[in-house]
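Batch job 17 of 40 flagged for manual review because the log was empty.
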Amino acid sequence: MKLYIKQKVFSWKDRFTVWDANGNDRYYVEGELFSWGKKLHVYDVQQREVAFIYQKVFSFLPRYFVSVNGVDIAEIVKEFTFFKPKYRIEGMNWDVDGDFWNHNYTVSRAGSSVVRIQKEWMTWGDSYELDIANPADEIPALAVVLAIDCVTAQQQAAASN
């Protein structure tokens, strides 16, 4: 199953529309404008919240939590490295590896792909393709990818200042 994310270029707060391979809207992701730490709400097409991603504010390394139906299911931690970014996903037995700066990486479970992420080039704004192996992993996989994107965007913004 493939999902596509397009970030709005001119937006005061984070807004993503997630659609399927047929171009149908699947999810809407919206950030909070004024909050301590980054917070993203993921809504289905009926406007029901299906996931919530939030940042642990006072942490030495970037740390995000993924909540589905009010239960924290995963913690995404950026590990301390000098050259290549590395992430740890706690709570789901998932591993992540690849090129995070170019949004080309894979999240796997026991060696099998859960989701592959590729950045679409030559588009207005950032666009991504998520190839999810099992439809049952759709919402957690989307939320984990969004959390990793938050860390990457935060670090790119800090590097440009």
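Reviewer: the log was empty due to a logging misconfiguration, but the result itself is present. The chain has a mean pLDDT of 82. Unflagging and moving on to job 18.
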